Amino acid sequence: MTFKNNFISEYFKTRRAFATILLVALFFGLGVYIGFNKRPEISKVENLLGKETAVATEADFSPFWKVWNNINEKYPNASKISDEDKIYGAISGLVDSLDDSYSVFFKPDEAKLFEDDIQGNFGGVGIEIGVKNKTLTVIAPLKNTPAYRVNIKSGDKILKINDLTTSGLSVEKAIKLIRGEVGTTVALTILHEGDKEPKEIKIVRDIINIPTLDTELRKDGIFVIKLYSFSANSANLFRKALKEFSLFQSDKLLLDLRGNPGGYLDAAVSMSSWFLEGGKTVVTEDYGNNTNPKIYRSQGYNIFSDKLKFAILIDNGSASASEIFAGAMQDYKKAFLIGEKSYGKGSVQEVVKVTPDTILKITVAKWLTPDGNSISEKGLIPDYEILITKKDLEEKIDPQLNKAVELLNNWPKK
Length: 414
Hints:
Structural class: alpha+beta
Number of domains: 3
Helix content: 25-40%
Strand order of the largest sheet: 10-11-12-15-16-19
CATH superfamily of the largest domain: 2-enoyl-CoA Hydratase, Chain A, domain 1
Shape: globular
CATH class of the largest domain: Alpha Beta
CATH architecture of the largest domain: Alpha-Beta Complex
Pfam family, one: PDZ
Strand content: 15-25%
Protein name: Carboxyl-terminal protease
Number of strands: 19
Number of helices: 12
Domain PDZ: 123-179
Organism: Candidatus Nomurabacteria bacterium GW2011_GWA1_36_15
Distance between the termini: 28 Å
CATH topology of the largest domain: 2-enoyl-CoA Hydratase, Chain A, domain 1
């Protein structure tokens, strides 16, 4: 993200209020039907999704109606499939044609699931997932959740959910399968990064409460903030953490964004403002198509001097709002980034209410760092790239944290 990317997911940015859209663009040809006398009545189809105004198009919709009619005439038990379900299926296919895993049409049951996600408490296993290289992938497990406790990690590939292969499965459908009644079990076939063979992991579902932030003052004077998400209250909690940091009179700050799948854009902008002068670009939304970009700027709290020693930990589970914040700090040379290349979730989704119980989530722009780098295309490359090996995990060694500590205690000139 932006949240609840990563979470899962994302976790996505809903920058605009639910709006109406002429999604019956799929049926642009309702009044221009050519060559078929057995078409459904126009008024009947329009009423399924609410009365809409057709949009002018030169597209030939006769193949659509030919398929519609052949389904009705020839498919066994076609009468058991409602016109509404066929329309929803057609809309889903239209959105799938964008070849963008973040643009999705939610039918009524899926829309409810999506809206439950935004509320922040839900039943499941506690992972943010996305599609990476056409494979369902764990962006990050959430702290102290069932998935976290069975050692699910960022970058894990989910090959099966129960007995269903995930190839070609959308994120939203995967979430629906993973969710379930609290206390029941879901089996995930996982391929850990570096392993040759996948293994099945059974996880008992539970109520998931999304964590936000922890702080710690180390004996060497380094103040550590572990931020788990860019939730609605994270900006306020981050402000309190910085106040706590100032009371210790330390000049060494370590922000751990590993496994943080993002969340709210406004939280990332507000948090960046503690380190940047007013008016500085935090992130740019690039809409393409000769549309003017939207620039989000620092509010200019800027309370730290150049003497601040600031390091940020990232990995391939750092996504969306995490990348916005870390990218701004890196571009303005306010902090060094340490760890692994970030996830690369830098697109902007708008949520549109299509009908009272269906939703369209559609990509409308991509995020650029202050220097103009596309987060989606490149992710963030750390200043100090350090991988955690399987041996490190077995021996419970954290080379990324160790490098950050070394850097903060022996601060180089930027």
